[in-house]
Amino acid sequence: MRIKLEKRREPSMAMLVVTPVVSVLVTMLIGIVVFDLLGIDGFKAVTDIFITPLITSYKWQDVAVKAAPLIIIALGLSVANRAQVWNIGAEGQYIVGALCATGVGLAFGTMGGPVVVTLMVAAGVIGGAAWAAVPAGLRTRFSVNEILSSLMLTYVAGHALSYLVGGPWKDPEGRNFPVTAPLVDSQTLPVLGTSTVHLGVLVAVILPFVFWYLMSRSVFGFQVRVVGSAPNAARHGGFDGKQTIWLAMIISGGMAGLAGALEFTGVLHKMDLGFASGYGFTAIIVCFLGRLNPIGCLIAGIVLAVTYVGGQMAQTSVKIPSSTAGIFQAMMLFLILASDILVRYRIKLVKGAVA
Amino acid sequence: MEDSLTPRLELNGITKRFPGVLANDHVSFSVRPGEIHALLGENGAGKSTLVKMIYGIMQPDAGEIRWNGQRITVANPKAARKLGIGMVFQHFSLFEAMTVLENIALGMDASIAARDLEAKILAVMGQYGLKLEPHRIVSTLSVGERQRIEIVRALLLNPNLLIMDEPTSVLTPQEVEQLFVVLRQLASEGCSILYISHKLHEIKALCDSATILRGGKLVDTCDPSVETSRSMAEKMIGGNLKEIQRKPGRVFGAEKLVARGLSVPKDGPFGTALRDIGFSVRAGEIFGIAGVAGNGQNALMMALSGEVPVQDHGAITVSGAEIGRLSAKARRLVGMASVPEERNGHAAVPDFSLADNAILTGRDRMGMVRGGMINAQAARTYAGEVIEVFAVKATGPGAFAESLSGGNLQKFIMGREILQKPDVLVVSQPTWGVDAGAAAAIHQALVDLAAQGSAIVVISQDLDELLSLCDTLAVINEGRLSPAMAVADARIEEIGLLMGGIHGSEPVGENTHAH
Question: Which of A128, A294, B232, B323 might form a disulfide with A253, Cβ 3.0–4.6 angstroms?
């Protein structure tokens, strides 16, 4: 008996859906085994990270609030990745988006209201898009690899953040901590009742359906898919490859900027160095776990948010560092990429011992 | 020398099953040492599957392979090469970003110093008259040149059996003759050759025997010298072969497509610049552009299709309107359609459905777009119409392009453009790697489209195709186009000389390519 990979005539739609689920399950299985080997109750650790937040109703709002930025960023990345444009700098665009919202908020002083908040969020979108436009311009004009330029700009954004919160925008009343003054209430996003669930969560629930509709039905969605799948065919069909790169970068940057502005106005209400929390990188995992599909991103965003919340819970319940969640997240990405082969190939057991 | 009574290669009852199809059904034949044996059949008849099993890429489900009388299992291509089986594929396996030399070095099982390998390559090329620059980057080479890499790669192994899959599809008559000299030389040295082709007159000219497959089954093993091309073709397709039907006494209408002073600079260091190209095609006329691969056909195709618009807006006109700077999309809107030579990834997206591939070029003319949104139903309907009118073998509009055989996909692509009723259609290599039945259907469709008043340009390296299909012919060489000539008055020798140009079709020996 030997194992053989046989190419499928057409990519398997079933596998496209099944493999992300399997990846998550296998990640959990590996987690149980590894933790048990380390002398920790693996089953409890894994259930705490993956299951408990889902069955503990008072944790739901935490999950929702954490999922929102992941979903919104991942939606933008799904468009870019479909066009085979690799925006690795969403984290930077997320930071710049929030900074732009901060700048607008500060400019209005104590003035607030829906118009000001809308302007702040719009500034976030524009800032994120502009930050992503730099790699787009470098790529289309000078053939600079956008993976490197967008990633490096993340560090620039991080330094801009620390300069602004530690300098010009530092809270005068803040006992010299590098943090901006908290937003006045009228500059923050409305929340649901007494919960922490803010308007941005609603945006994160609605946008996937908008993206799904546009990507599957519009000429633009078609253009992105063709450019990503067969650039020469796209040119033959009359689609402009450079324009597609521009749009893909700007959309993904704009979404990251939107997520940053919503996080700032909806959750944190002030900017400090802790704002760079890695959502922009985790969203890459969300995007692939969601199969570059907007609805998939919605589901995968919730899964990843669960691991964040669960990681914190496991910290106290089984005494493992909360960064364990990061290991699980990375493992999921690894497994989903590895299991991609099952979409195009099937595994066959062949009789006979042919070497 | 081996006993000439023992076949070099013998297949007994070879069967290979794929999900849903029986690709080979108890196929048996044998090839003697020094014999040139043709393997003939339509696309999808099972030829490729059969040779893949001989070359060790696949394993048969049943049956045996004997090599010099010994029953063998060919585990993989490396084992095949060790036995002395070489293969030149129809689809090349080359790394585009690497040089010719690096590509050949990568294909070698034993590692050889680059300098020695280069000397060996030059020796083989000199011996067999195959022209190739070892240090050129593959991405800059034409299809014909790429094929030569594969041939050299196979010959370097001194094979006892050489499998050639559709080797002449992209060669000039002179190059085909040269290849035949190479193959005959190899055969006289005792090397057996398994020659896969659709071109029946080539098989008659070259092969000692022919095995014909149809639908995975062996139909006949015959002697091509006593058969006619027609009789073999009919065995192959299992029916009567259709010839191109033309209405007599056709007259051409007004000039539809005119190129005047069309010049395009080189695209990259190894590209070919187009220099002052001029021609005109009238309504109802089929205009052929002959030429050896790599003489500017790609650049001309890009310029005509609009994939690379030209600076001089007036260099190309359609029905009098200047279109030089228009994009491919804008040109389709004024009635100019095109079909590039590469099906997979250029004319069609392999992992898209046929309906989505219909959207690719038909979306504007066939009303599939409204307010930036795609009408998926219209796309499916149109794809279904193409499938039906052009008898494309596919499960339906939802079938992925990559699931179709080459001939069927080409029929779909041609049909997708033709049913849009373009005023001008530019096609490149319309029947490359396509079986006789599909080629005949495509040719007939082009003739019919011209009869409805469209102007058609066919860029092809297959001179037979151009001579049977076109009304007018010009030859492209080094980016220049010869004056047009009526096919009825054209002499093959003259065309051959124009095609040769200064590149010549003589063996490499006398020039070392100093440009």
Answer: A128
Q: What are the residues whose beta carbons fall under 8 Å from the beta carbon of B193, sequence distance 6 or more?
A: B35, B36, B37, B161, B162, B163, B164, B183, B186, B187
CB contact B19 to A (< 8 Å):
yes
> Which residue ranges does chain B devote to CATH 3.40.50.300?
9-237, 255-510
Q: Which residues of B touch A220 (CB under 8 A)?
A: 372
Contact B179, B188 (CB under 8 A): no
Query: How many Cβ atoms sit within 10 Å of the Cβ of residue B5?
Result: 8
Which CATH code is given to the segment(s) B255-510? 3.40.50.300
| Count of pairs with CB atoms under 8 A, one residue in A, one in B | 78
Q: Which residue of A has its CA nearest to B377?
A: A217
Q: Closest by alpha carbon to B242, among B435, B446, B441, B409?
A: B441
In the three-class reduction of DSSP (H, G, I as helix; E, B as strand; rest coil), residue B395 is classed as coil
User: Please, are residues B160 and B9 in contact by the beta-carbon 8 Å criterion?
Assistant: no
Q: State the smallest CA–CA distance between residue A138 and chain B in angstroms.
A: 21
Q: Is A232 within 8 Å of B345 when comparing Cβ atoms? A: yes
Q: Kindly determine whether residue A226 and residue B372, on different chains, have CB atoms separated by under 8 Å.
A: no
C-alpha angle B346-B351-B356 in degrees, rounded to nearest 5: 80
> What is the full DSSP assignment across A90-123?
HHHHHHHHHHHHHHHHHHTTT--SHHHHHHHHHH
Model pLDDT for residues B124-144, shown as the tens digit of each residue? 888 877 778 888 988 777 666
Q: Is B351 in contact with A218 (Cβ distance < 8 A)?
A: no
Closest CA to B7 of B35, B38, B49: B35
Checking if the pLDDT of A295 tops 90, the result is yes
Please give the single-letter amino acid code of residue B254.
Answer: A
Total-model pTM = 0.78
Please report residues of A whose CB lies closer than 8 A to that of B328: 235-238
Rounded Cα gap, residues B383 and B127, in angstroms: 50
Q: Are strands B369-370 and B161-165 parallel, antiparallel or unpaired?
A: unpaired
B486 neighbors B280 (Cβ within 8 angstroms): no
- Among B319, B317, B314, CA closest to B253: B319
Topology classification of domain B9-237:
Rossmann fold (3.40.50)
Q: Is B57 near chain A, with CB under 8 Å?
A: no
CATH 1.10.238 fits A2-350, yes or no: no
Residue A309 confidence (pLDDT):
92
Q: Say which range, A204-208, A221-225, B44-48, B299-303, has the weakest mean pLDDT.
A: B44-48
* DSSP one-letter code for A218: B
Q: State the smallest CA–CA distance between residue A290 and chain B in angstroms.
A: 19
Share of chain B above pLDDT 90, in %: 49
